[in-house]
Structure formats: structure tokens, C-alpha cells
């Protein structure tokens, strides 16, 4: 049984449609939707007494065993609704947490979901233990004076501390992997967007991976990374991340902080938008709000309008006043427009790179091989003395990496015109 209240300024049709998708993603079978209108939530039941009675009648008529309320309920409101409807009640946050618990596959993902669930559960424990009083007194029956509720809360606090310690260890490992990636000058590009916008389908199309992609909300939960080659022999690390949604529970943002750091630390964001969705502008605004919450609003981005095959649009690009590509229209399902995106990515990184000339002696064979493996060599020739003369496209991170190599000497950098040693600044 789905329940949604319309408040002034809300979009009932799309919010109810999203609730249906959430319920189906969780594995529920929707039997009926109960709608209502209020100026403000009721303190006792959120819905109000009349609407709660209407939900009770609908539950009895449909023989429903679960009521999903498309709002965040307080523990007291949840308990009161359960008493009135004589059915289990779950609010929006609880529903999303359930979906995340089903989708989590990695060790870190499972820890993050459990932490968010325990945080959500801690304030709701009373409903499961209201029938228990203090432990019995009398000879042989005296206990420590701790109620079952207090004991359970203590166990949850201990479990939360344990999870946080394990997550700190995982975060350290993730940070170590990130530092290792930063030693190799390969930029990271993260796919972001509203849930079910087609990020995983685009990721699979670009990388040839087999990441799970389905027409359901939160099909992707654990981040996946793959290296891909761009036109011009440039390379990037592409990251597929969890989708965003309106009213994303703050508990999830906190629990998935280390995962979402991959977005904030990226060099470029590809904001994937479902072109066929009627509320794509509102969804894009929701994505902007989540990006601001994780401090990623400053990261440069390209907007990718996906699913053009559904609306019969042609693949194309749109540039800003400086000539940089800012929008790309494509279809991840058919592949139309994907080459335009790859070329836009290659062009984006070319705009942030300059060409420098290097003169390497024959003894610098190891460095010569590393440059070919890590950087884009635009031109190369062998001089009569056996030295390698190379023209290399460099960004700032590439240059920093080159300067850190043990067998690199500043004298290997030469002036573009005279061939004399250059200053050691990019």
C-alpha cells in the first residue's frame, strides 16, 4: 500500500511515480495508492486521523501487509500508524535503506549500508520492546536493572563503533589506492546523475565492462572503475557511481561518504541526464544539490543527455563561448553519439595540456619507455648521436610525475625553438 500526501508546491504525479519505482525495486507488489492533501504534516500520524483511517480500510480491503509512506516519519508517527492500520509501516528512508541493503555487494558497501540502517533503527527500537518491563525482581530473578530496550541500544552503539572502526580501515585503503593512482598521471572521470539515468549502460558502452545495468532505481551501488583509451592515445580512469535521488537520506550521504569522495576527487564529472524523462530539469537540480552536499560542486563537468533514441533526437554537441564542449547528446543503448563523447573528453584534456620537447640520452632507456607508457608522445625522432628527441603532450599532473622520476634531469627539457635546456617550470 503506497501513501503520498500532496503539500503546496509539490509534484504529486512524478513523486508517486518515483515511489512506485522504489517499491518495485525493493521487490514489493503495489496493490493500491492512497493520496491526500494537507497544508502541513500531522504531529501524531503525519497523515491525519481521517487519512490514517482511510489507509486502514484500504489495507483491510486489499489484504496488504506493508504500508509505504513517501515521507520521512518520526518513530512516534510510525508506531501510531502501525497501531491504526494494524500493518507494518515503512517510510521513504527505510525503503531506500532496504533497497541499498539488497544491492550492496562489496565489503565496504555492506558496512556502509549496515551503519546507515543501525542509525535509522536506533530511534525506532521502542516499538519492538514496549511489552517488556524491567527485569524481574525476587530471589534469583534480580537483574542489573537494565531494560531490554537499554540493553539493545547499548548493543547497537557497540556495533556502530565496530562498524566505524572497520570503515575507517577501508577508507584508509581507499585513500591509499587513490594516492597510488595519483602517482600515475591518469585523470579520473566520474559518472554522476539521477538514479536510472543510464550511467551503468554508458559505462559499459565506453569500457566494454559487464557492470550490472537494469531499468530500476539504484541498480548500481558499489563504485566501479575502468581505464579507457581516448582518441590521441590519451587515457582516463572512468568511475561508475551510485545514482542520486530527491530527498536522498542524509544518513546515506554520511554512510557513503568515502564512496562519494571518488566524485569529489574526480578531475571531471559526466552528468548523465535521462533526456526522455519529463522531469529531467528537476532531477538535474536534485543532482546539483547532492553534489553541493558532498563538496563536489566545484568540479568541472560535461552534461551528457542520454536516451536520445527514445525521443528520436540526433547525436550532437554544444559548446560554450570559449569553444569547449559542455553538452553531448547520445544513446548508451545504441551507441549513437558515443564517439562524440570520446572526442569531447580527448579535446577537454588536450585543452589543459601543452607540448614540450625532450632530449633524452641513450642511457635514459628506462625513462624513455615510461614516457611512452604513461604520456602522449606527439612526435619522436632519433638524432645521429642516438639521443631521442621527443615532443610530449603534458598536463600539470603529468609534468609533476615526470619531475619525480629518479632518472629525470631538468636538462632533458629543451626550449621549443633553440634546443637549449629549458627552465624547470611547465
List its salient traits.
Alpha-Beta Plaits, Rossmann fold, 3 domains, alpha/beta, 7-stranded mixed beta sheet, 4-stranded parallel beta sheet, 426 residues
By DSSP, the count of extended strands is: 15
Tell me the radius of gyration: 28 Å
The overall average pLDDT, rounded, is 80
Q: Give me the CATH superfamily of the largest domain.
A: P-loop containing nucleotide triphosphate hydrolases
Per CATH, the class of the largest domain reads Alpha Beta
Please work out how many helical segments DSSP would assign.
Answer: 15
CATH architecture of the largest domain: 3-Layer(aba) Sandwich
Dominant shape? elongated
Distance between the termini: 63 Å
Q: Largest sheet, order of strands side by side?
A: 6-7-5-8-9-11-10
CATH topology of the largest domain: Rossmann fold
Percentage of residues in strands: 15-25%
Describe the main β-sheet briefly. Answer: 7 strands, mixed
Compute the number of structural domains.
Answer: 3
Order of H and E elements: EHEHEHEHHHHEHEEHHEHEHEEHEHEEHE
Structural class, by secondary structure, is: alpha/beta
Q: Please bin the fraction of helical residues.
A: 40-55%
Structure overview:
With 426 residues, the chain is α/β, with parallel strands linked by helices. The chain folds into 3 domains: 2-90, 3-Layer(aba) Sandwich (Rossmann fold); 186-351, Rossmann fold (3-Layer(aba) Sandwich); 354-414, Alpha-Beta Plaits. The chain is built from 15 helices and 15 strands. It has helices spanning 12-25, 49-62, 75-85, 92-103, 107-122, 126-129, 148-183, 199-207, 250-255, 257-264, 280-293, 308-311, 338-351, 365-374, 396-404, and strands spanning 2-6, 33-37, 66-69, 88-90, 188-193, 224-230, 234-240, 268-274, 301-306, 316-319, 325-329, 354-360, 376-382, 388-394, 413-414. A hairpin with a 5-residue loop joins strand 10 and strand 11 (325-329). The chain is elongated and about 90 Å long. The chain starts with a strand and ends in a 12-residue tail after the last strand.
